[in-house]
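Journal club side-thread
Mid-discussion, someone asked how the predicted structure for our own chain would compare to the paper's figures. Pasting it here so we can look after the session.
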Amino acid sequence: MKRAIPILAAIVLVLALALPLSSAPRNMGDGSTIWTWERGNAISTKLENKDVDWDAQVGDGRWGWLTHGKKMTNGNFDGQVEVKGMDPDSWYLVTLYSDDCLTAYYLGQVGYYGFVTKLAWADIALFQTDAEGNAKIDLPYTSPAVDPVHGTLAAPVLPTGEYKDVTVAIKYVGTGTDPNWSLVQSGGYSTPDPGNQYNLYEMEKLNFTIWEKLALVHKDTSDWSVISQNGELVFKNGPTFCYKFEGWELEADTAYSLIYFADPWPGSNPGALIAEGTTDGEGEIKFEGCVDLGMSLPHPSDANYALGAKIWLVPSACYNPVSKAVTSWQPARFLFEANYITYDNHSC
């Protein structure tokens, strides 16, 4: 029963992202003054070219839209970009930018496809229009262009976190078989476009959140193979560790602690208590919130620092919240991380 909920949610998300994209989002045609349109988890934002005063040139046949999820997971910027009336057989760079301090920090870690740092900028796609000057690409997007220095431009991963006041620029970077790589390296045709001929820009700034998803599992400790998944944690980077946790088929009416286990045993190196809760009569549990851990994960003292942090769910009777130590090894009752995680507590 518990797994039906995430599956249904995934179906709704897919439909929400897909339905508006078979044609222009509702009431968002060339020349219209509808800048955004929402359906379910998906937001569509109109793109127009703008002059040097940043005034939109509406109705001139050069336009498009970008659709994305309000809530996304695992570093993916999920959605689509569609443009119309652009230069035929030409290349365009999709760039995100923000003046918001935390958002700028996250985007700056991506820079140019993760290869070149660009303060407050992230280049997330490089695509080519067809002979009519139109294009539609799914995001995340791996470009068919091969950078002469960096090679294949695989879709970049954005850090988890809350993104605010994000602008979008669809910037011209050449016409022909390959992009103009000098223009790509310089960031594309200048913004705003002096001749009002090449680029497109957002008509409303974007706001979205990217979460990281972690499965919590029972393991066979003889070989550490996974027996079953019985929990799921989503979290994001930020000054505080913000999370949502759901567990199922656990011991009924039992207090549990969600912890950062920092090796070696007993996990208090330094370790951290993230949250506590009690299962219901069916062994299900849910809790969410934000907690100041006072550190990024993993901590440098953790023996797994080079790999990442371990997140466990253990019966509270097996854990000391003061010393941050696991006090009783009862692995059949524990949920272990399916993989290591990292968390950045950067603040502005």
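Post-session note: The CA atoms of residues 7 and 13 lie 10 Å apart.
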